[in-house]
Amino acid sequence: MTEEHRTAHNTWKLRSMYLLYFASLGSLMPYLPLLFASRGFSPIVIGLLLSVNPLVGAILPPLWGRLADRTGVTIPWLRIQFVALPILVFLLYRTNAIGFAVALLVLISLFLTGAIPLCDHLTLEFAQRDKIDYARVRVFGSLGFSAANLSISLFLRYHAINSLYLFYVPFVTMTFMVSWLIRDPSARDQAPMRASQDSAQLASPPSGAGQRDAARPGSTSPGDGAVENAAQPSTPRARLVLFFCGIFALSLTMPVFYSFFPLYIHDLHFPTSIIPIAYTLSSGSELLTMPFASRVFAKIGARGMLVASGLAYAVRWIVVGLAPSDFAVIGIQVVHGIAFGFFYTATVMYLRQAVPPKWRATAQGAFAGTTALGNVVGNTAGGALYSLLTPHVFFFMEAGIALFAALFFTVVRLRPRKTPTRLAH
User: Fold this and answer.
1) pLDDT digits over 168-221, tens only?
2) Range(s) of the domain holding residue 96
3) Closest listed residue to residue 67, CA positions, set 365, 367, 371
């Protein structure tokens, strides 16, 4: 098999994994409140049950990443998750006991929260070895999530919510089957020439503002004839801490859409039917931005993309807060492709450059943990603010948080420190 054919085969295997796994997520997470309500659980109990996953997700993803870093393999850990999750979700759909539901949700979260960071880490390993564009692989996750939601809207017309596991279990089972077609890129495959192309394939900034994020004064940029030593890239810890603080600030405003947007639509007396339309536009808009995220990253760098993300979130919540019409409230959701799409891809690609190889999977897990913690705090504080303030003011405050995050990334520099090494020819 030629190198081009191998790259094409690996690309479609990874795309299939994202497509199927995110389709399973799209058939599970948005519908857990309906499942618990069908069991007769009170709103307070439902809120407690829904808090289990983000609480566990704030702790465990870095541990999954550390396992991958220490063992040097990712696929076996993913397969464990893909085996355990269908069994646990099936049992969750069959239980009526609150205590058993809590125990199952803890176990589900134990595996669920680690899968996406490990998938990202694995894909980035292939991006380095096989010159695969990470963003054009990851976008298939958005496609799977959106397609699942559209399919389930039809499924629920003829079937009860209690049978929705018939969607979830096959999707994860197929993901497990696809994982057997994927092999971890071995250390032997990481030839120096491949390693030198890491920044290029992640679209590291070659010039302008992006280059200022990518190279410190006195270092040599990837485009001037020197190449990065893949064993050496690092960023000062203080700068990484600041970076994660900014990520946390942005993630505070993200749970607004799924947690409080439906309540807001109800309070405005807009038709409830616009909610699934808004959800579809939101997730579907990622298909318009993620395929080009690497090119944008090359031009403006992580900082530029994160500033754009904060501004997009701010505009989104300002329009929702003003609510000039139901059409405007629905239409503005298309900026989610920039707001979340740029936020996610920029963070994943930046961390790949900013940390040493032995910590890369751990860094992706730390990213997942940071956003989960932001969701916990955002939901908790947001619930209190939503009850104290008018809904309009609440969304204006969320816009203020997003603007603060954009300003934060405007001021903070994200330049990773790299030790360039010239290859002997």
Assistant:
1) 999 999 999 999 999 988 544 544 434 444 444 444 444 344 444 443 333 333
2) 3-188
3) 365
